[in-house]
Amino acid sequence: FQQFSDTGSKKEHVKITSQAKPGFLERLSETSGGMLVGLVTFLLSFYLLFTNEGRALRTAKSLDEGLSLVVPLDSIQAVSQENEGRLVHLAGPLSTSKPLFDPSYGLSIHAVKLKRNVEMYQWVEYEDSKEYEENGEIKKETKYTYNTEWKSEVVNSKNFDREIGHKNPSAMAVESFTAVSPNVQVGSFVLSKGLVDKIDDFKQLSLSNLEDPHADVTRTGDYFYHSENPRRPEVGDLRVSFFYAGLSGYNPHLGSADKVTVVARQRGDQLIPYRTKSGDALQILYPGDLSVEEVFQKEHESNTMKTWALRGAGWLAMFVGISLMTRIIYTLVDWFPLVRDLVNVGLKAFAFCVASSLSLLTISVGWFFYRPLWALLLGLLSVLPIVIARSRVPPKKHQ
């Protein structure tokens, strides 16, 4: 059943839907499906936690190996055959053979990457829902609000609750794209595709020195507008901006070329990935002029952050999996409000303790073959949440 009520504004409306409160068997069936999802999530969390530890330790060993073998280059203008096949460290300004062009807008720049970003003025739908129980029914009140905004992707208005009056074009007349220089160098050394991919610090390009490329295009600020009135755009109007990454050569408006620091394997005049004994490939690039120690310190910090992020994701997946698998207990006592609330708190505490213990235990198993002492310590810590939980349970009274 659906009931509509208009707020008086064409840009928003409210829809109320209602359905009969699900019975016990229906809720039990839904809970059973959730248990299956929980089991899959629970098993995937073990895989995520275990493989993450192996990856973290392998990466750390590869970085330590790289730091012990890396050779700083005295000059980037000449290629020394003595360093053939070795892991080298160098720093210098970027250079490219040819400028990047966008002939449609009369724009060119000496840079590693040039990105054209096209946005269209479109309707966007927002939802705000709330559920409540009334007369034995579950009712859902949804407020739909429509705003016009600049968006880089086409918003499909066919999915709107009310498309009439909020219809968007199905495609953009001008497409976004990113041009990449085919040849990027630091001194006499050519960067591999993997190193070029790491140059992604995009900055918006000022258009103040350019003229309007066409009669139907107007430049306002740092945007080209396909609009009759850029200050009052209509749905379907376009605006185009440009971004660059890795400035090469001197630009009178942007300054000197960007400097980068690279650690990679030398093969002739090519800089390619270096394969370590642990199996990882080292090809590192950072903006600026960094020492060898600074480069590897940043890599270790990045590895640590990634490791803890995946540990947190693994723990959360395990917690959610356990919560879904034990949800059936909550469903069985759903008819008794006081018992239901107590059971809900107890189930969450149970899921928290078990997820914490199993996560620590899985991490310790992952470390076992690499650092046995740390694995033993983590294994002991994994028992701590259960011990704390048991200590808070009052002892049974003697009969």
From TrEMBL:
Keywords noted in UniProt: Endoplasmic reticulum, Membrane, Nucleus, Transmembrane, Transmembrane helix
Gene Ontology CC annotation, any one: nuclear inner membrane
Subcellular location: Endomembrane system; Endoplasmic reticulum membrane; Nucleus envelope
Transmembrane segments: 32-50, 308-329, 349-369, 374-393
Highest taxon listed in the record's lineage: Eukaryota
Coiled coil: none
GO biological process: lipid metabolic process; nuclear membrane organization
Keyword match Transport: no
Membrane topology: Multi-pass membrane protein
Record-linked InterPro entries: TMEM43_fam
Keyword Translocase part of the UniProt annotation: no
Predominant cellular place of this UniProt entry's protein: membrane
Family (UniProt): Belongs to the TMEM43 family.
Name of the protein in its database record: TMM43 protein
Lineage: Eukaryota, Metazoa, Chordata, Craniata, Vertebrata
